[in-house]
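Example 3.2
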Amino acid sequence: MDPVFLRTFTVVARLASFSAAARELGYTQSAVSQQVAALESDLGAALLERRPVRPTEAGERLLEHAGPLLLRLDAARADVRRLAGARPARLVVGVSAQAVTDRLARALSGVRSAHPGLDLTLRQLPRAAVAAEVATGAVDLGLVDGVAAPSDPLGLPDVGPLLTAAVAEEPLALALPAGHPLAARPGVALADLADARWLDAPEVAMALDRLRVAAGADGFRPATRYLGSELRGLLALVAAGHGIALLPSAALRGADGVVAVALRTPRLVHRVELVHGSLPPGPADRLVRLLAAAPEK
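Structure, written as tokens:
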């Protein structure tokens, strides 16, 4: 399978149009048609119905393989370029919303001291996208956060030969509005909260599907969905009684109208992991070395 033809096929399938795919890819419509036809000839199966344009059964099956295949090709290209490239004067770090820690800020100061004039960028990404962005070279390295048992890895998606290291672990706390019936308790059990009014904020708080697994219980249904990534906005919703959320304990210090109650069971922590590929000497490599020591707790 020619990867160029495979990529063209996925774009046609996504847009349901040969002409729209040609515009996006910068080809003529005839070239797009020829590439799809060549791929069909190679595989010995029709992949797209033409009127209307939609995948056949064989095309649907190929699409299941195409995403991971193309991602791994992009990751391989980025990995080789990292090794062969000159030392960059820029550093792009991909971070999930709760992955920026004091330790990261201090480490970045160390990198700046060693590389004066460094062009530094932190890009906030969805948790699920960090590893793929690192693998494909869209960012130089990443930091992703999530919930795990103490000292357990986060279980990131397999998108290429990446390395991970723990950067920080801290306790989790339940964010409650002041005056909530549970606000005076010294601690809570997650399983007792299955029927509570939860805020579903997957990019800021701990995801509700992960809490169901951790508690071994159904429930944890959202009373309100918050699809933003701003912690301040989430805490405002908690304070106003729109729902409760499980957050890193440090995120709740000094929050107006919000009470933090420790999570007692199960034993879970908020964990931040560093994600990176092979790196030549330079700013990214220095940041990895500064962050990859024993995690802060």
